[in-house]
Amino acid sequence: MRRREFVKLISGAVATWPALRFVGPAIWLSTSHAFATEHGAIPVVVADFDYNDTSGEVADRQVEHVERVKAFAGLLRDRLAREDKYKVLRLDCAKPTCSIGSIGADDLAAAALKADARLLVYGGIHKTSTLIQWGSVQVVDVQQKELLLNRFFSFRGDNDEAFRRAAEFIGEILNSVSP
């Protein structure tokens, strides 16, 4: 139902049922918010992040790191999905991992366009010591072929909580990116 039709319907109902004087505006506000959310959201895909470990740790923690990096991209998707500004779409590629390192920049951009995305978020994390991780995140407007964000970040820790905090921080930064 269009907004104009809704307002006309509510106006007529308010005249016949006085209680709608209070309920009507609340309903109108909630539907206008849903209308804006549905039609104004920027379609975005978040690629898997690449991971590189040059820390020289004695213990082999590759399985843990793969899970954490996969969770990192998932946390970013969840964070963006919570925002009215973005509509998170599914990125599909021919490989098990959809990252710039696994399929290359051109194929990643093509997969984003195929998903009808406007923005592509990708990046990587590099573990340099047992405590320090460096990351990069890029946002590309794939329709305009324009780099909107190229940000480096670092975080301490090599556990789920450290990755969660880093994803939340990057999610805040991504919330300020607009095409």
What topology emerges from the helices and strands here?
Elements lengths: L2 H14 L3 H21 L1 E5 L3 E4 L8 H20 L4 E3 L11 H4 L1 H10 L4 E9 L4 E10 L4 E11 L3 H15 L5
Helix pairs in contact: 1-2, 3-6
Describe this structure in words.
With 179 residues, the protein is of the alpha/beta class. It folds into two domains: 3-39, no CATH class; 42-174, 3-Layer(aba) Sandwich (Rossmann fold). The protein has helices at residues 3-16, 20-40, 62-81, 100-103, 105-114, 160-174, and strands spanning 42-46, 50-53, 86-88, 119-127, 132-141, 146-156. Strands 1, 2, 3, 4, 5 and 6 form a six-stranded mixed β-sheet that branches. The longest helix has 21 residues, at 20-40. The protein is globular, with a radius of gyration of 21 Å. Mean pLDDT is 82; it is low at 1-37.
